[in-house]
From TrEMBL:
This is peptide-methionine (R)-S-oxide reductase. Gene3D superfamilies: Peptide methionine sulfoxide reductase. It catalyses: L-methionyl-[protein] + [thioredoxin]-disulfide + H2O = L-methionyl-(R)-S-oxide-[protein] + [thioredoxin]-dithiol. Its EC number is 1.8.4.12. It comes from the Bacteria. GO terms for molecular function: peptide-methionine (R)-S-oxide reductase activity. Residues 1-20 form the signal peptide. Residues 44-165 form the MsrB domain. Keywords: Oxidoreductase, Signal, Zinc.
Length: 174
């Protein structure tokens, strides 16, 4: 961590409880931000029955998988990456790249399919993104990606499913 970022984070320590209370994700905020999808109103307990324990922990408890643990890191075929919970398409494989972080990374998401919130879990602010449809936590957005956009969408592999180009996308879960 850079020294300046550490010092800036230390300045925020007294305000951390206030900042954390304002960092909650709202599907209504996603819709107001111009999302092109209709948010689901489904209890997290219902998702638990459909997902593996690891996927549920990442998607609905905002856990993070170990770096280098996802088979999607090595996926190179053309296709679409969809939310592992509700099956909303989130990324086109043309925008996937090797970031060296140990997590699947993308230069951009499908427009209107993600919602955002500020995350202060590591003291300094980060931009967390979620599926705009089910609210499932996907990962974090950073500004250190490749040109021309400079974005790195760092995603938990367990929060995604890959659908090869020659297969049909599954119907959205409701």
């Amino acid at each position: 961590m850079k020294r300046r970022a550490l010092l800036q984070g230390m300045v925020l320590l007294p305000a951390l409880p206030l900042l954390a209370s304002q960092a909650s994700f709202s599907l209504a905020e996603t819709k107001a931000a111009g999302a092109t999808v209709v948010p689901l109103d489904k209890a997290h307990s219902a998702w638990r029955e459909l997902l593996t324990p690891a996927a549920y922990a990442v998607l609905f408890e905002e856990d993070t998988e170990r770096p280098g643990s996802s088979p999607l890191n090595h996926e190179k075929r053309p296709g679409t990456y969809i939310c592992a919970a509700c099956y909303l398409p989130l990324f086109d494989s043309r925008h996937k790249y090797e970031s060296g972080t140990g997590w699947p990374s993308f230069t951009q998401a499908i427009e209107g399919h993600t919602g955002f919130k500020r995350d202060f879990k590591l003291i300094f602010p980060r931009t967390e993104y979620h599926c705009a449809r089910c609210g499932g936590h996907q990962g974090h957005l950073f500004d250190d990606g490749p040109a021309p956009r400079g974005e790195r969408w760092c995603n938990n592999g367990v929060a995604l499913r890959f659908i090869p180009e020659d297969e049909s996308l599954p119907e959205l879960r409701s």
